[in-house]
Task: structure prediction
Amino acid sequence: MYKQYRTIYLLSALLFIVAAYFSQGFYHPDEHAQVMEFAGLKLGLTEKANLAWEYGSQMRPAIQPFIVYVTHRFFGWLSIDSPFAIAFILRLFSAALSFLSIHLLLKAFIDKINGEKLKKTFVLLSFLLWFAVYNSVRFSSENLAGHIFIIAFALFIGWGNLNARQYFIVGLLLGLSFLFRYQNMFLIAGFLAWILFINKNKFTDILVIGLGLLLAFGVGMLIDRWFYDEWVLSIWKYFEENILKDKMSGFGTSPWYFYFVKIFNEGIPPFSLLYIVPFVLLVIYRPKNPLVWIILPFLAVHFYIGHKELRFLFPLIGFIPLLAVQGGELINEKWQGLLQKKFFRVFTVLFWVYNGVFLCLISFKSAESNVSMYKEIYHTYTQPAVLYYTDRNPYDRALVIHYYKRENLRMQKINSVNEIPLSADTTALFATCNEVEAAAVSKNNTMIYHILPEWVKHFNVTHWVERTHFWKVYEVKNPPVK
Result:
């Protein structure tokens, strides 16, 4: 299979590396605050008081902070200690794991797909679907848990008649998926139910899988003990805080149909129908399909829970290509010739054009624009420095970011640019999105950061640059001009 699609494999591998390099930062603040900042506690970069409330509640599994910590220690031994370099390495790790899961899923199912056209579509969607590439390089619980689950699923299908060792490996992988994201228990439950009731495996096979799950869970408890400095059953804490105390509803609630509307709108209609219709068709016409048993309980629980965010469904992204081609097979079976009609051919061409445009955009775009500012300050100023601001702290992203900040960088809010003190011992920096403040400081001081490259300013028609609120950072050596 690899030889037949070698060009796509090589192109996608390069694309994953490029995306991992440029997609610095995070999709959601939790991706950073509950992973990198948590690890920063053990690395001595921050204090308990600076962490999100989930730390005090002991409700988050510590496996991701543990990986960050170990990565820092290992590469620190190799004299690579920049937090930005470590974050890039972790994104590369995520990309490699995602790439492996895609390959194994293709290997398990491609020979089961009817028709070369659908097979090629399966490969292209698996490697080049724009939002899947973006998600695949995230060191997030949603991405890691989802792709580890897919590896377990693909190995089970691909191995066919499994022996005890293989059942145990599948269980171990399912357990790891659970450790990265507890909500994956509903994917796991659906998969085990399919194995037992539809695939007709022996109950002893489920027990062996269960042993692997228990081993992973035990390892997770040891890691949580290391992180929280006491024995903790974090899954219970999670249930207690979010279900019994219903804290998650405090972040907002949405109606049960929220995910349908969100996927349809953000998936760019009408192309977003590709992510909804195939699964609905499988539920109706192929209810014994393993994807139906795996995904349906996961969706049902998330539809029921009041607090909804699109990222909660990200563990399912890796299944979309398989759902799409199986849906295509079903359409060919039920409505022969429908996919060959002009409307569908035009739809397909337009889909790949739109997908290509978005793929190029996300491959070279930072996930969080402020990180480039943190990087510039971190690498430019190793000596003591104070970053002054008048409105909002540029390092405040729901919580103040400490992981990307040197210990000798201090933040201080001031009322006016005229209050910036000048000292020979400490470098004074000033960050602002306000054009009036920027104009006052820029006349006799050096701008050391602007998110827009200099060449963009040559296209400053109608002075849109001045009217756009981007962070600018100045090294202040002279008093601002009034």
User: Anything to note?
Assistant: The first helix runs from residue 6 to 22. The CA atoms of residues 194 and 200 lie 8 Å apart. The two ends are 68 Å apart (CA to CA). The mean pLDDT is 93.
